[in-house]
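Bench log, entry 3. Co-assembly request; chain sequences pasted below exactly as received.
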Amino acid sequence: DTAVSQTPKYLVTQMGNDKSIKCEQNLGHDTMYWYKQDSKKFLKIMFSYNNKELIINETVPNRFSPKSPDKAHLNLHINSLELGDSAVYFCASSPRDAGANVLTFGAGSRLTVL
Amino acid sequence: GNSVTQMEGPVTLSEEAFLTINCTYTATGYPSLFWYVQYPGEGLQLLLKATKADDKGSNKGFEATYRKETTSFHLEKGSVQVSDSAVYFCALKKPPLGQNFVFGPGTRLSVLP
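Structure output for the full assembly:
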């Protein structure tokens, strides 16, 4: 059973389109995240939700909108896609703060904007 | 703010060579420290962690010691294998509140047979 699963794994689309990436975790974790990894492998936090509540919202264009229908799901919707949005997007989850809890990552969703 | 600095890669070694990847951090208080590894085409996986000064994290032959006096958490392995080829990320997290992990830029390791 995959702990953190993302779909789709690959997404190729044209500039200006709207697309969504879905994420689900079956670990019972309270907190979920979206990270963006650029072509140089640099990893940047975008959003974090704790039990459906937004708790981290880094400087991200408002074309990016996360949605958490329940604590096991965190989806990412992107409007009006731009070339610079091309990256690998990782979903992750962690238990609620209790010492040095750790992140469990999904396999990533590679978005290519043409 | 909190930040993590890693040695720039790529690092290329021959099989059985000794590995060191340097990591230093800036943070107020007492963060927990982590090394994550990303194999080609996969997500990041936890490699090891340390939660307080002088703790040593270890896994799969890798080790790192939490050095508060030098604010460092260098990753070492005595004898690398081809299968260790991956990108390695150093990271920190501030307890007890706050959900944000801060990652370093990653160091790509290539091990040649």
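Chain B touches chain A at residues 32, 34, 36, 38, 41-46, 49, 51, 87, 89, 93, 95-101, 103, 105-106, 108 (CB under 8 Å). The mean pLDDT of chain B is 92.
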